[in-house]
Design a protein that fits this description.
single chain; 249 residues; alpha/beta; seven-stranded parallel β-sheet; 7 helices; 41% helix; 15% strand
Length: 249
């Protein structure tokens, strides 16, 4: 197997579980050295690091709060200090908060943190990475199919943050094109992760809302991320890649 990302360094923010872990492992299979970040579970992060190292690449985990722009900037600097450079950024860290806009008991602090993690932190990571990446750099953010249609009540705040991510990424793609850096978004559907397990009470309705009638696997989202990180995707920027099981159709 040709290691098309050999000598490349990838940072997967939110890489200790779910889609992030799957993306880190897939990029390692392509030969990239991997840094992952995690919010709280050092044990889970170190377990992923061991799996990555078993694939023959260098790997490291850093703790960072995605909601804190200064912590995100420090994270990017730490990766460059550790590996010497950064070539691929995968923005995967996210939280999910539901609540109707007219619900007087919907906690505003939760809404604010969701926006901080799902948009502000990603924007900070893109800005920080763009300062250290060279030609051929890849920035890939994981979005959500809710930007096409909410589908259910209580998604307004989540939809707003994910929609902002798409708009920012398109603008960043224009800004960074002269440097040879591409910026793209992978829009995921309902994926079987700790945050949204297919055993939840909402699962039957979520499955029925997709054309394929099932949850996705983290590895299926990782495949889309891996494509956008490869040299083959050099002419793809400002794009939205739907890996959502047909949720948007």
């Amino acid at each position: 197997m040709i290691k098309v990302l050999s000598s490349k360094v990838a940072l997967v923010i939110g890489g200790s579980r779910g889609i992030g872990a799957a993306a880190a492992l897939r990029l390692a299979e392509d030969g990239a050295h991997i840094a992952i970040s995690y919010a709280a579970s050092a044990e889970k992060a170190q377990a992923i690091v061991r799996q990555l190292e078993a694939k023959g690449v260098r790997a490291v985990a850093f703790q960072a709060d995605q909601a804190d722009p200064s912590a995100v900037e420090k994270l990017v600097k730490s990766v460059v200090s550790h590996f010497g450079h950064l070539d691929i950024l995968v923005n995967n860290a996210a939280i999910f908060v539901m609540g109707d806009v007219d619900n007087p008991h919907h906690p505003l602090t939760a809404i604010e943190r969701q926006s901080a993690v799902n948009f502000n932190g990603i924007a900070a990571a893109i800005r920080a990475a763009s300062k250290v990446m060279g030609k051929g750099g890849r920035i890939i953010s994981v979005g959500s199919g809710v930007t096409y249609r909410g589908g259910f009540p209580g998604l307004a705040d989540s939809l707003a943050a994910k929609s902002a991510l798409v708009g920012f990424s398109k603008g960043a793609a224009r800004d960074l094109a002269p440097k040879g850096i591409t910026v793209n978004v992978v829009q995921s559907g309902y994926v079987n992760t700790d945050m949204n397990p297919e055993t939840s009470a909402y699962a039957p309705a979520f499955k029925a809302s997709t054309a394929l009638g099932r949850y996705g696997r983290p590895e299926e989202i990782a495949a889309g991320i891996a494509f956008l990180a490869r040299p083959d995707a050099s002419y793809v920027t400002g794009s939205i890649l739907d890996v959502d099981g047909g949720y948007g159709v």
